What we know:
eight-stranded parallel barrel, alpha/beta, 14 strands
Amino acid sequence: MSVVITVAPTGPVASKADNPHLPTQPDEIAAAVAQAYRAGAAVAHIHVRDARDRPTADLAIARRTMQLITEQCPILIQLSTGVGLDVPFEQRAALVELRPRMATLNPCSMSFGTGEFRNPPHEVRRLAARMQELGVKPELEIYDTGHLEACLRLRDAGLLGDGPLQFSIVLGVAGGMAATAANLVTMVSRLPEDAIWQVIAIGRTNLQLTAIGLALGGNARAGLEDTLHLRKGELSPGNLPLVRRAVQLVRDLDLPVASVDQTVALLKLPAR
């Protein structure tokens, strides 16, 4: 099966002070995504920032970013409804009204670093139902073991649409699962048989756990949201080197890299 490469160019946490190559404004994000597409990425996981580089759910900024990306390449856009810890849930949820091909769905509230990531159960159900109405494919982000059961309850309630469930197994966030191979193997073993999944390893274990995930049959995500470094002590000069590294991992395992059209078919994305 072909491997889907997702680029995550920005994220909600890092700043240009952490890595000056972090794209934060719409034109910067679009340029980084277009480069990643040409290198082999089929999906772009998008966070947007305001004019002061703070995480935002501003619909005008998100719409402009999506337009700029679409003008430069046909990559599939996945908007993050996580946005940032200080952004109210209702503002985050409103992003799906822009009808990206995909959006994240976070099933549970949790501690997140020194803050709280709030995802009230009744609001999560409402968002899942609205995504289904709009034909927006949910990417289910699971940060801990119980998050999987929460997703399966949404599935059993008929709130996750048709086609295979799509998961991101997030490891390394303080408040969630530690970034270990054992945790990854455990979570993969518990996924539904037909699930599509990728590992998101935050920080220094990013490369190793991405490789393990590929060997276990998962997809791959790369970008400055997940790690600011290309190797220990060396900041990555942009998203492109990280995407190229992920693509090389896939090819070193003698696996094909999925095109946009193949990704649409694999995920059974609703028609547009």
